[in-house]
Every structure is written in C-alpha cells, then in structure tokens.
Design a protein that fits this description.
Chain lengths: 262, 259
C-alpha cells in the first residue's frame, strides 16, 4: 500500500472581490511510496504550495482526498513536517528553542531535547548561532533552522516548499547533500518543491512536472541514479540527459504560463 | 539630522529630552516673572517649588502620594488580571469574541468619571469606590486592545505550530501569547497612564486623602503653587513608571526590540 495517496484532489479559490474564482489545482492523483523522494517542478502560480498545504492539512481540497497510511488527512499534525516557502520561525524563540518547539509539544524530556537540537544545529551548520533570534539570522540561515525544526520532530513525511530558495549555490549544494544524507540514513518520505532543475534531479527518485495554472501533474519521471549521491554526479551524462528532458518539459509550460498572462 | 526613521544616539536623545524641559521652565519663568500672567492664576517656578517643600514637610504630602499610587496600582492590577486573559480568549476564539465584543465596545465608551456619583452611592467614599473607578476605566480598554492584538497574530506561525504538533492550548499559550506579549505590555503601559487620570478625578470628589484631594484643598485656598506642584508630581510619577515599564519590556522581550 502507498504511504500517501492523493486522490482526485483539486482546489478552487473563491473569486477575490467579485472576480473569477481561481482554479489553483486541477484534479490531481499521485501515489507516494514509502521512502520516495519526490521533487515537484512547475511554473510560478501552478498550485505547488497549494498541493503541499492540502497534504499538510492546512487547506481543504475542493474535491478529492488525501490518504496517509490509508487514513484520510483532515487536520495538520506532527506526522507531516513542513518547511514553508515564507519565513515562519517563531521570532520570540532562539534558534535552539525553535528547533525544540515540536519536541516540547510532545513533552520530550529536556535533556533529550538538548541532544536532538545540538545534533541538528550541527547538521545544518548553525553551530555558534544557537542563541540567536530569527531576526539576527540571514534568510538562508532562517530556512536552515526551519528545516532543522521540521527534522527534529521526526515526521513520517517531509513537505518542503522551496526550502533552499534563498541560499547561495555553495550553501545550497551543502544543504542538498545534507538532506539527501538524512534521507538515505533515516528513510523518510519527502515531497520537495523547487524551481531548480538540477536540484530536482539530484535529490529525487521521482520528479513531477506540473502544468501552468490550473496546475496538474504533467509528467512523472523516475530518476534512476545510484545512491549515495555525490555532487560530482551533476556532471555525468546520465544527469545531463535527465536535465535536457526536464528543461524541455518546463520550457513548454513556462511559455504557456507566460502566454496565459497576456 | 532629519533623515526619516534614522535612530539618534542615546546621548543625543537624552540631551534633546532634557532640552525641552529647559525650554518649558524658561517659558514658565518668562510668563510669570515677566508679569504676563498674574500670580493669582499661575505661581512662578520658585513659589511652586517652595509650596512643594512645604507640602512634604508640613502637610505629610508623601502620605497622599503613597495612597494615590496604591489606588492606581491596585485598581489597575485588578483590572489587568481579569482583562488580559479575557482579551486573549477573545482574540483567539472568534465565538468568545462575538459574545463579548458588542457589550464591551459599548461599555468602553461609558466614561469612568460619570460613574463616580453612582459608585459613591453603592460603595461609599472609601477605597472600594476609588478602585472601582479605575477598574471601570481600565478593564474594558485593556480587554479590547488585547483582543485586537491577539486577533492580529501571524496566522503562518499558527500554521507552522500545527505542523509541529501544537494543539489548541499549545497554540494559545506558546504561539499567540508570547507573540502578542510585548504589545500587550505596551497596552498596559498606556492604560496605566490613563488610570492616573481616573484616580485624580475620583479623588477630586469625596476623598479625604490623595494627590487629587490635596489639589482640591489647595484650590479652596487659591494656592496655585501647591496645585501646580501636585500636578507636577503626578507627571513625575508617570514619567518614572513609564520608564520602569519600558525597561522591563526591553528586558523581558529582547527579541521584539531587535531592529
Ligand atoms: N488563499 C488564497 N486565496 C485565493 N487564491 C489563492 C490563495 N492561495 C493561492 N491562491 C491562488 O492559487 C494559485 C496557486 O498558488 P500557489 O501558491 O499554490 O502557487 P505555487 O505553485 O506555489 O507558486 P510559486 O512557485 O510562485 O510559489 C495562484 O494563482 C494563487 O493566486
Ligand atoms: Mg509556492
């Protein structure tokens, strides 16, 4: 049985100020297997965040349903960790306290919280910043803290909405390897939205390409590259072949999306 | 010098603040010593200061100051202890808000001073009546302002907390409350200032002690020096309490003051 099933999920937002309703997401079907690392590519406004929010239980689909381990998702819960596209650290908590937030809600003993926090602070490269408040961090550091906060909670599924969008290339590559390392080690199920084709191929065992709005899954490409992956993989001919194919798929959608706006 | 929103250095800030007081006292001196306003209506600064010394040494004014502070702080704390939790609940839960909001919005416009005759009837002229004036004046304001602050909390943070496993109580206590706390503290600082005006009004009518009572007595004797000194003392206490409040906020909520 699939870990996560998205069945016929669509979302129509009511019109804003008497305007036309927005069809953000066309009926979408997807089954995600345990340990899948799925990356989602698609033009801006095609409903990627909407889809992730529905899986998280933060938004309700207009039609269809989401099943996690066979059970319908209604509310948000700690079994689905999320890193939001926008900055959502708690400004009154330090980096360490932010990372411990979910653990505290679960009443994990303090000592264990400290250990888990230290581990992930190390992994996301924020050692020395444990006691900083979010306002004292750069955008990229905030997103790394948010990633650590979600990971510390040990969810079954990670929903990542362009988590590395604000990072420079070097840090981004490091974070990709870090996340991939965690995935290889802990075998998590991941849905990962990105605009970066290299990132999408490098991280995934499946890449979904979505159509321009109203979004639906246009193609679902399995990435058959061996694990563990190393950044040098990005220069192999196999990688280049995937990249050529995805670039073409996305170009078509980008053009359609641009035309739709005019 | 006049760059919008550009911070000034602490030294310069203090200097500018003091400069205004200098200007103020100078202007006061000019209108009184210059004979622009006759002494019957406005005492000069030195006379006011003398009256002040006399008040403390001869008339036990410190006792009046003490009792007034006690009333303000007592009434304000009683109001806050009930108003803040109610405001938080109203801000967090829209049905609670729908239930209380119309009445409280109505009650907020009832001037506390208008209740004084009624309160004297109900509670006599003792401390209960003084405290009631302050409680009536503060309670509804605090409730409404706190409800607005909590209601304006960032929904994205609430969503993030839900994906981290926070449930209803956790969201209220560990997301809404800490996020709103600095602004709630600011509100309390503001309302405490208003409470000072209510207490003086309460003491002007039917009181045997307090700064307001002293001012009333001085009026009978046409002692503008004492009256001015009394008002001045209220201002000084307000300034000090404001300063302490601000210091406490900066200490309690360092994250809020990071630019
Ligand atoms: N709360 C809302 N009310 C109305 N319309 C909305 C709402 N949220 C999203 N939409 C609409 O749904 C569409 C899809 O939005 P979504 O945020 O899912 O896009 P996205 O694929 O994540 O884009 P991006 O790559 O730019 O983040 C957009 O057209 C947007 O205007
Ligand atoms: Mg998005």
């Amino acid at each position: 049985m699939s870990k996560l099933r998205i069945e016929n999920v669509s979302r129509v937002f009511p019109g804003v100020r008497g305007g036309e309703p927005t069809r953000a997401l066309e009926p979408t079907n997807l089954s995600v297997e345990d340990n899948d690392f799925i990356t989602i590519l698609g033009p801006s406004g095609c409903g990627k965040s909407t889809l992730l929010r529905i899986v998280a239980g933060l938004d309700q689909p207009t039609t269809g349903s989401v099943l996690l381990d066979g059970e319908a998702v209604r509310d948000p819960g700690p079994d689905r960790g999320m890193v939001f596209q926008s900055y959502t650290l708690f400004p009154w908590l330090t980096v360490r306290e932010n990372i411990c937030f979910g653990l505290r809600e679960k009443n994990v003993p303090d000592k264990q919280q400290a250990e888990i926090a230290a581990h992930f602070i190390n992994q996301v490269g924020l050692k020395g910043f444990e006691n900083h408040f979010p306002k004292q961090l750069s955008g990229g550091m905030q997103q790394r803290t948010a990633l650590a906060r979600a990971l510390a909670n040990d969810p079954k599924i990670m929903l990542l909405d362009e988590p590395f969008g604000a990072l420079d290339n070097q840090t981004r590559a490091l974070m990709q390897e870090l996340l991939l390392g965690i995935w290889e080690q802990h075998k998590k199920t991941v849905l990962f939205v990105t605009h970066d084709i290299d990132e999408a191929i490098f991280m995934a065992n499946r890449v979904l390409v979505m159509t321009a709005r109203p979004g639906k899954v246009k193609c679902d490409i399995a990435i058959d590259l061996p694990h563990p992956r190393h950044y040098t993989m990005k220069t192999t001919p196999e990688f280049a072949a995937y990249k050529a194919r995805l670039t073409e798929e996305i170009r078509v959608e980008a053009i359609r999306s641009a035309q739709a706006e005019h | 010098m006049f760059d919008p929103l550009k911070p000034v250095s602490p030294g310069r800030r203090t200097a500018l603040g003091i400069l205004f007081f200098v200007v103020f006292f100078a202007a006061w001196g000019v209108v009184t010593y210059g004979g622009i306003v006759p002494p019957l209506f406005l005492a000069d600064p030195v006379k006011a200061a003398r009256a002040g010394i006399e008040l403390f040494t001869k008339y036990n004014f410190i006792g009046d100051v003490g009792i007034t502070i006690w009333r303000v702080v007592g009434g304000f704390l009683i109001a806050a202890v009930f108003a803040v939790p109610l405001g938080i609940l109203m801000g967090a839960f829209k049905s609670i808000e729908a239930f209380f909001e119309p009445f409280i919005s109505f009650a907020r416009y009832l001037p506390a001073s208008a209740f004084i005759p009624l309160l004297i009837l109900w509670a006599g002229v003792g401390e209960a009546q003084k405290l009631s004036v302050i409680i009536i004046g503060s309670f509804f304001q605090i409730v409404l302002m706190v409800a607005v602050i909590v209601g304006g909390s960032r929904i994205d943070l609430v969503e993030a907390s839900k994906t981290l496993g926070a449930k209803r109580a956790g969201i209220v206590l560990r997301v809404l409350l800490p996020g709103a706390a600095p602004q709630i503290a600011e509100t309390l600082r503001l309302v405490l200032g208003w409470a000072w005006t209510y207490v003086i009004v309460a003491e002007l009518i039917g009181a045997q002690s307090g700064i307001g009572h002293m001012i009333m007595d001085s009026q009978r004797l046409l002692d503008t020096g004492q009256m001015i000194f009394g008002i001045f003392v209220i201002g000084v206490i307000g300034l000090v309490s404001d300063f302490l409040f601000k210091q406490a906020n900066a200490r309690l909520y360092p994250w809020y003051f990071i630019k």
